[in-house]
Structure formats: structure tokens, C-alpha cells
């Protein structure tokens, strides 16, 4: 018996055969399932081990960091991109321009001085949109926690649907009235990058996304003073910006 997890293939695979034994080791899946659930599956497998072969599939969905930069002097806009179930594949981060797909963009829009930011969900956004410069694979989530649009129509809304979006909606938006001349510190000054990092941290804490997503996104952040009025700095200093 073997229990294998392949996040890039978006499948949880459980294989059994007649030679299985209770001592066969198994791999723990990305901390997305609690231990009691894994133990229950393992015990059930022992009862079935005399059968020739079985396979159990649990669907995963990819999660990507969506990056857009209007000009080299601006801070990159961060968003979370989740492909629709019919468009998801393990090589999307390499093929999203040559093989367009649709998905949901989750981000905050606005500005830090007068109005602040608002949470927005863009359903059926195409990966070839001019608002997407790069997609970076962050990890996977259980498909039951993700909302799939019922039709292909583009929709822009503020209402969170399903567990993942509802959890993201608990993260406070970057406030208005910020000092636009101050470097980003993630506390008094924050923009969409800092909000996205807080969302990913929350999802990891709740085990709603595979471990490592925060570290990947962190490596793509801009330096604290880049794109800030009156400041100068390199466009990207991996891991240097405050979370």
C-alpha cells in the first residue's frame, strides 16, 4: 500500500495492492488534512489490503501569484489567481500566455491616501489580460474550498464565496490616510503586496493552502522604498520587505 501526494498534479492518490502491510510508510499530504483524517484513511486501507487494486482521488486546485507592474518605477500589483477547474493544469505558470485560461482574481483595488482599498473578485478573468504580467505557482488548495463560476461570463464583485474567499475576506484592507512618502513597513504603510502576504499567511495558518506559499510570494516583493514618492530603490529585493 502506498499513499502518494502530488500537488502539481492536483490529485491525492491512494494506491493499494495485495502485498500491502500495516508497516508500509506513507507520505503526509502538505498539512492540508488533519491527522485524525489521515489515520482514518490508513485504517480503512488496511481492511481493504486483500483487494487487487484501488485508487482514491481528491481534487486539488492550483493557486498562483498574479503580478502586474505598470512601469519599472512602480510597485508591482499583487493578486491571487485561481484557474477555473476546466483550465487548471500543472504547467500553467509556463503556458498561461500560449494556452489562455480563465480563473478568479482575488485582490484589493484603490489607493492609500483618500479612499483606501476595496476587496474585489474578478470571475472568469482571462490569463492573457493586460493586467497580468506573470503567474507564479504558490501551491494547491482543496477544490471544495474554491468557488467555480457557474458560467463563462466575466463578473466583478465584492461578495466572497466558498471557504477560501471567506477566509481572505477577514483580512483588513490597507487603510486610507497613509503617508505616501514613507517606505512600506507592513504596519503603518501597506499596499496590495502586504495585503496579499497577510492573506497567504492566514491561509497557511488555517491549512487551506499548501505550506511554502508565503515564502514563494515573499521572494517576489519589492523593496520597501521602491515606487514610493520621493524614495529610490531597486525594483525587487527578495525577502527584504517587511511582511
Describe this structure in words.
The protein contains 5 helices and 8 strands, in the order E-E-H-E-E-H-E-E-E-E-H-H-H. Strand 5 and strand 6 form a beta hairpin. The longest helix is centred in the last third of the chain and has 14 residues, at 192-205. The chain has a domain at 60-220. The protein has 243 residues and is of the alpha+beta class. Mean pLDDT is 79; it is low at 1-34, 50-57 and 237-243. Strands 1, 2, 3, 4, 5, 6, 7 and 8 form an 8-stranded antiparallel β-sheet that branches.
Distance between the termini: 42 Å
Radius of gyration: 20 Å
Q: Which parts are unreliable, with pLDDT below 50 for 5 consecutive residues or more? A: 1-34, 50-57, 237-243
User: Helicity, in percent?
Assistant: 10-25%
The geometry reads as: globular
Succession of helices and strands? EEHEEHEEEEHHH
* Content-based structural category: alpha+beta
**Count of helical regions:** 5
Q: Report the biggest beta sheet as strand number plus sense, adding barrel if it closes.
A: 8 strands, antiparallel
Write the layout of secondary structure elements.
Blueprint: E1 2-6, E2 11-16, H1 35-47, E3 54-68, E4 77-83, H2 92-95, E5 102-111, E6 116-126, E7 134-142, E8 155-157, H3 162-168, H4 192-205, H5 213-218
Biased composition (Polar residues): 231-243
Region (Disordered): 222-243
Amino acid at each position: 500500500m502506498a499513499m502518494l501526494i502530488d500537488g502539481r498534479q492536483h490529485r491525492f492518490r491512494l494506491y493499494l495492492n495485495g502485498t500491502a502491510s500495516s508497516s508500509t510508510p506513507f507520505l503526509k499530504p502538505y498539512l492540508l488534512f488533519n491527522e485524525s483524517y489521515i489515520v482514518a484513511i490508513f485504517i480503512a486501507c488496511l481492511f481493504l489490503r486483500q483487494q487487487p487494486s484501488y485508487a482514491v482521488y481528491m481534487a486539488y486546485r492550483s493557486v498562483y501569484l498574479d503580478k502586474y507592474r505598470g512601469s519599472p518605477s512602480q510597485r508591482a500589483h499583487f493578486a491571487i489567481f485561481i484557474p477555473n477547474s476546466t483550465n487548471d493544469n500543472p504547467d500553467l505558470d509556463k503556458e498561461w500566455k500560449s494556452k489562455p485560461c480563465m480563473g478568479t482574481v482575488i485582490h484589493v483595488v484603490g489607493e492609500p491616501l483618500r479612499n483606501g482599498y476595496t476587496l474585489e473578485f474578478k470571475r472568469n478573468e482571462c490569463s492573457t489580460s493586460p493586467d497580468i504580467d506573470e503567474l507564479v505557482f504558490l501551491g494547491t488548495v482543496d477544490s471544495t474550498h474554491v468557488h467555480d463560476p457557474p458560467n463563462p461570463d466575466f463578473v466583478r464583485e465584492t461578495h466572497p464565496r466558498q471557504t477560501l474567499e471567506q477566509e481572505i475576506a477577514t483580512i483588513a484592507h490597507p487603510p486610507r490616510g497613509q503617508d505616501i512618502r514613507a517606505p512600506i513597513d507592513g504596519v503603518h504603510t501597506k499596499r496590495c503586496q502586504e495585503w496579499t502576504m497577510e492573506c497567504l499567511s492566514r491561509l497557511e495558518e488555517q491549512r487551506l493552502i499548501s505550506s511554502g506559499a508565503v515564502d514563494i510570494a515573499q521572494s517576489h516583493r519589492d523593496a520597501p522604498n521602491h515606487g514610493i514618492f520621493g524614495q529610490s530603490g531597486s525594483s525587487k529585493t527578495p525577502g527584504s520587505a517587511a511582511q
